[in-house]
Design a protein that fits this description.
Helix content: 10-25%
Largest sheet: 12 strands, mixed
Number of domains: 1
Radius of gyration: 20 Å
Order of helices and strands: EEHHEEEEEEEEEE
Structural class: mainly beta
Length: 328
Amino acid sequence: MHRWLNPLGAGVLVLALGCGDGGTGPGPNGDARRLAAQFERLADSAAGGGYTPAAEALRHAAQVVLLAGGATEVSLTIDGTARRFLGVAEQIDYPILYCGWPGDTGISVPPDSGVAPQPGGTSMPEPGLECGVADTISMRTLIAWEPDRMAEVVRIVADVGSANVKPTTPDVMVALPESAVSPDSAVSGGGGGASYPGFMGEYLVRDVGSWYAVEGEQSNSLSSQNGDCTAEKATFDWAEFSCRAAAFQFELTMRVEPLRYEPLVQWIPGAEPAWPGGEGSHRIALERSTVSGVRLTVIAWTPPPLPTEPGEPPPIPVDSSVVHPANP
């Protein structure tokens, strides 16, 4: 039996900058490092307030800013008022792996088996195990923030092209999807045979809370791709990506509603959440704008880990928050 697997799984997304054999890019400048440090501090604050998914997305944003080496000024309209924000964009082209033993359960091989990443091809870590890239999925993200204190952050994660809000769109800034996708069930997308049509959006306000898109539409396109990132490669968990500088066009309109993150600290007598949570709804719009950023394309991968016991689900990750809709 064979199984279709996403090699990157769930959990915290870690982006590590790597150096290629041929040297590195120009390196992030002081402004990029300053912005990345602001994102890290905001992420720490969000995590302390119980907003763990938002915190992981902010850490991802810090790495994108470093790779891009800067940001682009954009004009966002929030509740009818035009505001000056800074923004950066990203496209991730990541693999869907096919791994398994013919006639067996199709369970994947653990990462500590001594198998090195195989650029753009297959790994054969054990006799009879078959692994290969079944497809790639492309997702685009836009992150924009209020430049003075980074007190507000607007971001979307979208399938390539035009799409409406869809709750099942994976937030690849937090973790790449864990659901399997086969060619028979995949929906055609701009960057590969498989895709997740739709987009998700978030509006984060420092020390207050987070709002998520409940309706709206967006469109995105690749304007250009040339030049170097500040590093030649980026690694997520156990997949490695090449990095190229790119520019994207985004257009957006969405209505967002508050989403409650209830930190586990709430069960400690007398404890209060650091962020009380947002109230009301907001409307956010972006006229067609060109935003600089990066394109990350998979170049190497290793297989996903084995479960501890056959048939047992993976352990529940330690998390600081439980998510509840504001308006059930």
